[in-house]
Design a protein that fits this description.
439 residues, alpha+beta, 3-stranded antiparallel β-sheet, 65% helix
Length: 439
């Protein structure tokens, strides 16, 4: 049972036990009216309303939907709770609620972890700035958890419900498998889709490869390029960042001033003309200041490049002496992206996933093992590139990926089997719904 449902149950029970007015007691009793029921299990009116509130909240958070018709939300809540009550009924009917010693130990561990996690959440959410400490703080957390319905008993009930529903899922789906023929069909479909995609969007392959995504098909024209990036010194990076911030600030000032100027149209009176003249003066000043900021940025970049020039010379000398490019990457390099450390980036002519200077220099290399002889200037340093390998065109090979989820689609098949079985059980065990009582 969800926390919000448990909380509402507690509120209703408290109203029944308190000295509320008769009308309040009648309302509380009404809220406990069973709406969705099957066998020994049911969900009452308060729980249906709480589920509707929860679904309305989720629509607003994830989809931005608001103002949904209340009756539609209640219908959706009823359908959700029909599934829940069916699962609870089938768990009991199949004897899955009888836990083994190992399952009980797992449940105890899960509940213990959930209680600790919930306590940390409550502590951080409600007592982040408290002066309470020790036993007083623990007592305050205890009281707040009771107030929220997050008692140890409620958390244990949630943990048990989760475990039992997992058992039910396994009961249905453990025997579901995917044949090699099915996997091969999925593989062929995936390869064909990738090939079609790359025919019209060659850059997509490089973007996927460089991000470390699973590859199923490689188009022609790609090579592996390793990047030995000598990064700017820290103080130079700071100077560049500060100068860039000044350029950006002046660009913003120019844009806003120009927008203000554009508001003045037609014949102006004396006061308006004076205001426009002042804005034009401000614009000229901002443009002048932007030009100065851009010069300062260029100077900062030149200084940064100059301060690592000797390191570049040193690396080239070591390359000429026969030292391995990968060893020098480890010693001097700052590009720690994993794909660069293994195969190198996938680059092709006109690739847009990297700076154009990087791509042009990479594609100008003639043979595997060649390195760039000219500096490849980047926004954060200087790169020396190495032509590491050609990436062979074609499929990755079924044997290499046949056990991957994307190829077997086993989870999808299990999910479908579980949904189909629930529908079958629902037909065999109709859930009673008192929709009129919701009125």
């Amino acid at each position: 049972m969800k926390k919000w449902a448990l909380l509402l149950c507690m509120v209703m029970a408290a109203m029944l036990l308190s000295g509320c007015a008769l009308v309040e007691k009648d309302e509380a009793v009404d809220m406990l009216t069973p709406i969705v029921s099957l066998g020994d299990f049911s969900y009452n009116k308060s729980q249906v309303l709480a589920e509707a509130d929860y679904e309305e909240y989720m629509y607003a958070v994830y989809y931005g939907y608001t103002g949904i018709d209340r009756s539609l939300l209640i219908d959706s809540a009823v359908e959700t709770l029909k599934q829940e009550v069916l699962k609870e009924y089938m768990i009991q009917k199949l004897g899955l609620d009888q836990l083994t010693a190992e399952e009980q130990a797992t449940l105890d561990e899960n509940a213990k972890a959930s209680i600790a996690q919930e306590r940390e959440y409550v502590k951080g959410q409600y007592f982040a700035e408290t002066e309470l400490a020790g036993d007083e703080l623990e007592k305050a957390i205890d009281d707040k958890m009771v107030e929220l319905g997050a008692t140890d008993e409620a958390i244990l009930a949630q943990a048990k419900s989760t475990l039992l529903q997992e058992k039910l899922n396994h009961y249905v789906t453990d025997e579901v498998t995917v044949s090699e023929e099915e996997a091969k069909a999925n593989y062929d479909e995936t390869v064909a889709a990738a090939k079609t995609n790359y025919e019209t969007n060659l850059n997509a392959f490089g973007s996927s490869y460089n991000a470390g995504s699973q590859i199923y098909y490689t188009p022609a024209g790609y090579r592996n390029i390793k990047n030995l990036l000598v990064a700017f010194k820290a103080e130079d990076s700071t100077a560049i960042s500060d100068a860039q911030s000044q350029v950006t600030a002046k660009e913003t000032a120019i844009t806003s001033t120009q927008e203000a100027i554009d508001q003045y149209t037609g014949e102006l009176d004396e006061e308006q003309q004076a205001a426009l003249d002042s804005l034009n003066t401000d614009l000229n000043v901002a443009q002048s200041e932007k030009a100065a900021a851009e010069r300062a940025l260029a100077t900062a970049m030149d200084t940064a490049y100059a301060n690592i020039a000797q390191t570049i010379v040193e690396i080239r000398e070591k390359l000429a002496a026969g030292e391995k490019f990968e060893d020098l990457m480890a010693q001097y390099g700052s590009d720690s992206i994993s794909i660069n450390q293994t195969t190198g980036y996938a680059i092709c002519e006109g690739f847009t996933g990297k700076d154009s200077a990087f791509v042009e220099a990479a594609m100008a290399l003639k043979a595997i093992g060649d390195t760039t002889s000219e500096d490849v200037k980047a926004s954060n340093g200087i790169s020396i590139l190495s032509y590491a390998a050609d990436i062979s065109e074609g499929e990755v090979g079924f044997e290499n990926v046949k056990d991957l989820e994307a190829i077997t689609k086993l989870s999808e098949k299990k999910n479908n089997a579980y949904s189909e079985q629930l529908e079958k059980w629902l037909t065999e065990n109709p859930v009673k719904v008192d929709r009129n009582a919701m009125n």
